[in-house]
Amino acid sequence: MNTPPSDVATPVVSDFYDRFPYPADPLQDGPPPGYNWRWCHDSVLAAVKGGLKAQDSKEGVIRILDAGCGTGVSTDYLCHLNPGAEILAVDISAGALDVARERLRRSGGAEQVRSLRQEQRSLLDLQDEGVFDYINSVGVLHHLRDPLAGLKALGQRLAPQGILHLFLYADAGRWEIHRTQKALELLDAGTGSDGLRLGRELFSDLPETNRLRRTHDQRWALDTQADANFADMYLHPQETSYDLGRLMALIKASGLYFAGFSNPSVWDPARLLKGELLSRAQALSPADQWALVEQLDPDISHFEFFVSAQPIEPWRWPNDKTLLQASGRRQSCLWGWPSKSMLGPDLEPISISDEELSLLRLVDENPDVPLGILSGDPTTASLARGLMSKKLLLLEANDALLSGIT
Question: Are strands 257-261 and 302-308 parallel, antiparallel or unpaired?
Fold first, then answer.
């Protein structure tokens, strides 16, 4: 389906991505390598809401929108991590979509879901598509002429209990990138092959001690080996970045609600401080803790976060009795299961005890059985909380139980 775009700048960006289809991840036969829990609907719900509704409380087929799918890397993961879902993937670039369709054909992604559509459309023009339970829009809104209009458009496609995952550029960590972009603009390098050639020459010609070159060599050279990735970073004709204050103002103006960072460890002051300074930081409100981290870590180059159509008060599981009435689900995004040593949901090394491994095995073998019935071990609640903190165990509860903990 092709429709005239609502954003007048869309053709410029579309032409750019036709020249440089992004991201430049290689195509492969079979499922994509690894995983990303942020593309797994159940993992997202558990992270944002504190747990999942039991199967008998769920309604219908999950609908997922990949808004700005590019060359289909995210769509591929969405298909493989959400079997049985209905997925719509849209992008404004015909060239990128050609790659995306070939990627999904070779990976078998479409065979994993109830339906998959990959269409050349703007995320601003999806009024006829109803609503979605999960929307993924990574690295897209900051390339619109009016990011707020884009966020409002996505909000209108979000189901009342839906979650939207976003990735937007951050000012501080892109200091050197912005200056390189401006320099190439002043040199009239353009956004095509000449710009690519001149951009690479620039980093070769600058003194090794130059801050722009040093940052590129140390931080971005590996990521931008592919021409499409280099162009996306340094030659893009249109982008916006934010600080934390403007980001929160953008969300508020859209009528949506901030539902948490999808990389919460980045925003934990304990990553940067210790002793009295950490104690003082932890006494701050969450918003002030995030503001402190933003000031202390100028390398943060992006924000990745969830928003929702309605305010969310996560289920806290306040006591062991309630927790043991819930059933469990093992995190599906694990590399090396079953084992006591695995790569976790963020591809981080994780080691678990014999007791934790046994509980996860029981959960795997006995779906829908409450934890308290599943295991009579008096330490079950403690083990479950430990596994939950590592995102290895997702709790499921029916409506009756949820009404007592929300």
Answer: antiparallel
Per residue in 67-108, pLDDT (tens digit) is 999 999 999 999 999 999 999 999 999 999 999 999 999 999
Looking at the predicted structure, is the pLDDT value of residue 393 above 70? yes
Judged by average pLDDT, the poorest of 14-18, 54-58, 147-151, 367-371 is: 54-58
The Cα–Cα gap between 363 and 329 comes to 6
Identify residue 370 by its one-letter amino acid code: P
The answer to whether 44 and 161 are in contact (CB under 8 A) is no
Q: Where are the domains of the chain?
A: 10-171+241-308, 177-234, 320-402
Whether the upstream peptide bond of residue 349 has omega within 30° of 0, thus cis, is: no
Cα(73)–Cα(89) distance, integer angstroms: 11
pLDDT confidence of residue 6: 65
> How many whole angstroms separate alpha carbon 253 and alpha carbon 149?
10
Q: Give backbone dihedrals phi and psi of 194, rounded to 5 degrees, phi first.
A: -65, -40
Q: How far apart are CA 262 and CA 47, in angstroms?
A: 8
Supply angle C-alpha 367, 373, 379, rounded to 5. Answer: 105
Helix (H) or strand (E) holding 309: none
Q: Averaged over 117-134, what is the pLDDT?
A: 96
- Helices 380-389 and 354-365: angle between axes, nearest 10 degrees: 90
Q: DSSP labels for 227-265?
A: HHHHHHHHT-S----B-HHHHHHHHHHHT-EEEEESSGG
CA atoms of 279 and 80, how far apart (whole Å): 42
- In tens, the pLDDT along 253-288 reads 999 999 999 999 999 999 999 999 999 999 999 999
pLDDT above 60 for 33: yes
Longest dimension (CA), the chain: 71
**What whole-number distance in Å separates Cα of residue 186 and Cα of residue 189?**
8
Residue 317's pLDDT band (cuts 50, 70, 90)? confident
Residue 22: closest CA among 234, 204, 202: 234
Residues in the chain: 406
Beta-carbon contacts of 152 under 8 Å, excluding residues fewer than 6 positions away, are: 254, 255
Q: What is the distance between the alpha carbons of residues 177 and 96, in angstroms, rounded to a whole number? A: 24
Q: What is the CATH number of domain 10-171+241-308?
A: 3.40.50.150
Query: pTM for the full model?
Result: 0.92
3-state secondary structure of 55: helix
